[in-house]
Amino acid sequence: MLDNTITLSVDPANDSNPEDQIFTRFDEYQNRSVYTGPNHSLSDRETLTFYRTAPKPSGNFKGVAKSSFKISRDVSVEGKDDTTTVAAIELGEVSFSIPIGTTAAEAMELRQRLIAVLDDDDLMAAAMENLEI
Questions:
Q1: What's the whole-model pTM score?
Q2: Do 111 and 68 fall within a single domain?
Q3: Can you give the residue range of the structural domain that contains 119?
Q4: Does residue 56 sit in the same domain as residue 73?
Q5: I need a labelling partner for 66 at 20 to 30 A (CA). Which of 37, 81, 101, 108 fits?
């Protein structure tokens, strides 16, 4: 089971000045845990959710363990008429499918590759080209 409190070291401006953001367990379901962030309120969502799916063996294959996490938060964006703002949800999600028997080192290399993609500002800007972020 995950801890009741999760502290993320976040560098919001990607300028080597990280800050701790604390997420606290809000709700727990079978195969899902929901945490709320420091800016969560009744009117503004800020959540971190973890999911898992047990492996399903098939023939001689032991199956894959699946897990994912999603960060959700409400943001205010300009409306189409440029005179109003609209609340909208911003989502980011990462998922894993790891074959049973994968070594810890192989799983860590996959995770590190994902981190490298996410942390490459030029690559992410190109991947989100034409999106205003």
A1: 0.86
A2: no
A3: 103-133
A4: yes
A5: 37
